[in-house]
Every structure is written in structure tokens, then in C-alpha cells.
Amino acid sequence: MISNRLPQHLLVIDDSELQRQFMVELCGDMGIDNVLQAVDGFDAVAQLKTNPLIEAVILDLEMPGMDGVEVLHELVRLGLDPAVIVASARESVLLNVVESMGKSLGLRLLGVLQKPVLYEQLASSLSRFSVAQLRAEHSEAQAPGPQLNEQDIERALREREFVAYFQPKVGLREGQLKGVEALIRWQHPQHGLLAPVHFIELVERSRYISEVTLQMLDMSLQYCRRWHDAGLPLSFSINVSARSLADSKLADKIIERVAASGIAPHHVILEITESAIMVDLGTTLGTLARLRLKGFGLSVDDYGTGFSCMLQLSRVPCSELKVDRAFVNGASQSLHLRILLESALDIARKLSLRVVAEGVETREDWMLLRSLGCGEAQGYFVAKPMPGDALLPWWRANRDRVQMLGALAE
Ligand code: C2E
Ligand code: CA
Ligand code: CA
């Protein structure tokens, strides 16, 4: 579980003295004592340039001289990276545009709030601070990526350098551990542990994609056996690129290996990914239908983006819909996201599909998903992906906390 650290030094940027005082008081009520003030955009940028202690800013949009949008651009230009909360009295459509802009600029946006800002709203935005911090450190650690080629993949398969990490999927109502998603990592002899962002595209374009999928399946089956033996009847999901399903032999091998493992196919969910789906539509759909008939779960991954549009739901014989984190993350803070999320849940209900929300990072988003009747959640709020050996100890240490989340009053 990520600790809920608040920013130690925060800068309030607003041309109205009254508004600044109000924010300073709110922050004080929350236990943030080092609250600085800037009277306009220029003052703010000057302070941020010279004071590296400032971890977060609360930014007004309408200011004379340099407005809030300009301040955001200036932060990016100067490579300054405080966490940002935008607070403005302007209409929600404009706030949404600023939010999208901030995200696409790569800013650490904790929230976009309408004035007058309530204590709960500010608290909830600030509660995202630790996660944003973690992500920033994470992405710094990962860039720039190593140069890899097909021969590396071939060796990695041979030397068993690919490792399966597992991220828990938890029932929102009862706080039960339902299953895990297997996520690939590469334990590279020179570059250390690599996340998929560095190599999965290369793998998916290569002729080794089926072999990589099968290794992930084998590793997951082995762990699944252990979890079942330990009394946890979990299911697991693996990610299968739609492209590799045009290879009908892959489905045969998946069916064979699962049968040989003794794990029932209904404990195995295939998350179908990739935007340029369906190279060979007929074969792919046939393969999916066969897997479904054998009892495998099929999940439409990244629902709401790219290939995972509504039309695909009518074609793919799926049993689960995985709502992309773009609609989940911050939904409690954004009316627009909430509307899209509700409509995804509505469609799933009408098609009798189970729904998993991915990218749940905060208690607020968790509570919203619960109140909207979403089935399962996955995300840093519950747990980050972990090695297979860590799952049972994690569950033993976190069972009470997670079950309590299931019992939280609305
Ligand atoms: P995905 O299938 O959408 O997997 C979810 C990703 O979101 C994972 O990233 C996971 O670590 C991350 N995530 C989980 N909870 C949170 C959260 O609360 N906040 C945020 N910001 N992120 C969260 P990861 O492990 O880096 O995997 C990235 C993508 O790589 C996956 O996205 C999937 O498309 C692909 N991938 C992973 N493993 C495999 C694999 O075995 N085969 C194939 N073909 N693709 C894979
Ligand atoms: Ca997935
Ligand atoms: Ca996804």
C-alpha cells in the first residue's frame, strides 16, 4: 500500500489575496504548514525556479499578465515538475480542456477543481500526491530505454529471462481476491528488470510473440496450481495480442497446456489487446469462439480505446470487459469521465459481462466504482504488480485491509 504523504511545501498561485488566504487556511487545516504564495504567473515561475523545495502548486487560471495556462506551458518548458492542482471559477467544459491539456503535456495533475473549492475536494486531490510522486520516480527510472532486437528476444526465451508479475483483481463489494493479471517483465542480464513499455511492441511484431505468450501461460499455470493448493481458488488473466490469434495453432497449444496442467479453463482469462486487431478476421474470430466454447474467459482489454470499441463487443464472444484506466483514474474528480464510465458499466450490464476497472489509484475512485456497481477493481490502490512468490504473503498481510475496503459505507 502506498503511504499517503502530503506535499511538504506548497505554492498557492492566485491574483486575489482573498482566494490565496482561503487556500492557505484550507492547506493549514490539512496539516500542510509551509504554504507559500505567488501573486501572479511571473511571481510563481520565479519562485519555482529558485525554490526546489516546492513540491506542489495550486493554480488559478484567470490572472492578469501570465494566465494559468501559460504558467503550465512555462513549467514544461523549464522542465519544472511540481504536482499541480488547478482551481478556477470558470465553467466545467473549460476546466476539462485544461485537464486534457495538462495530461497531454505530461504534467502531474492532481485535480482540476471548480471554485469555491471544498475541503473534501482539495483533500481528495492532495491524496493523489503520493501516487503521482511514485509514478514520476518510476518513469524517471525507466527512461531512456535500452536498444533491443529480435535476437535478444530469442535468447531471452531460451534463457528464460521473461518473468511473470501478478497484479491482484479484487471484488469491490466483498473485498475478495478474485484473481490476478499476469504482466510480463524482462529480467535482462545487462539492463535489469524491464517493464513491457521497453520491449512489448518489439515482441508483438516479432515471430516470437506466440512463444512469449506460451511462456507467460506456463509460468501463470504453475503459480495458479500453488495458489489453489494453498486454498485460494484464483483465476488468472494473460494478455494475448489479437494479432497472434490469427495463428490458430496458438489456441491449440493454449488449450493443450491448460488441459495438461489440471487447472480448469474457467480459471484462465485471455485479455485480448491490440488496436490493429484482426489481420485475418475470420480465423481470429473462429479461434476466439473455440476458446470460449472450451470454457476460457475472454476479456476485452483497454475498453473505451482503440480497437476496444462498442462494435467489437458484438463480435468478440467475450465474458469480461476491462475498462481502460483512462476512464477510471480520476473519475471521481471529473464529471465527463464519470459519464463515460457509467455508460461502459451500463453496456456491460446489458450484455451480462463482468467488469473490471483498471488503474484504480485512490479511495475516491474506488468508492465511485463501488457505488456505480462495478464488479472488480485492479490498481495501485489495492496493489502494484508483484512476483508470483509475493502474492500469498501479500494477501496474508493485506486481507483485512482489502476486506474492509469491501465493507466501506457509501
Ligand atoms: P495492460 O494490459 O493495460 O496492463 C495494465 C498496466 O497498467 C500494467 O502495466 C500495470 O502495471 C499498470 N497499472 C496497474 N495498476 C495501475 C494504476 O493504478 N495506475 C497506473 N498508472 N498503472 C497501473 P505494465 O505491466 O507496464 O504493462 C503494460 C502493458 O503491456 C499492458 O497493459 C499490456 O498491454 C502489455 N503487456 C503486459 N504483459 C504482457 C504480455 O504478457 N503479453 C502481451 N502481449 N502484452 C503484455
Ligand atoms: Ca491487460
Ligand atoms: Ca488495459
Low-confidence stretches: none
Read across the widest sheet, the strand sequence of neighbours is 6-7-9-10-11-12-13-14
Ligands (ions, cofactors included): ligand C2E, calcium ion
Rounded Rg:
23 Å
Mean pLDDT: 90
Q: What is the name of the CATH topology of the largest domain?
A: TIM Barrel
* Overall CATH class of the largest domain: Alpha Beta
The residue fraction in helices comes out at 40-55%
- Helix-and-strand structural type: alpha/beta
The tally of beta strands, per DSSP, is 15
- Strand % is 15-25%
Overall domain count: 2
Number of H- or I-type helical stretches? 16
For the largest beta-sheet, the strand count, sense and barrel status come to: 8 strands, mixed, barrel
Shape: elongated
Through-space gap between termini: 22 Å
Assign the CATH superfamily of the largest domain.
EAL domain
CATH architecture of the largest domain: Alpha-Beta Barrel
Blueprint (SSEs and pairs):
Blueprint: E1 9-13, H1 17-29, E2 34-38, H2 41-50, E3 56-60, H3 68-78, E4 83-88, H4 92-104, E5 108-114, H5 119-126, H6 129-142, H7 150-158, E6 162-171, E7 177-188, E8 192-194, H8 200-205, H9 209-229, E9 235-241, H10 248-261, E10 268-273, H11 281-293, E11 297-303, H12 310-315, E12 320-323, H13 325-328, H14 335-350, E13 354-358, H15 363-371, E14 376-378, E15 386-387, H16 391-407
Parallel strand pairs: 1-2, 1-3, 3-4, 4-5, 7-9, 9-10, 10-11, 11-12, 12-13, 13-14
Antiparallel strand pairs: 6-7, 6-14, 6-15, 7-8
Helix pairs in contact: 2-3, 9-10
The structure holds ligand C2E and calcium ion (CA) (2 copies).
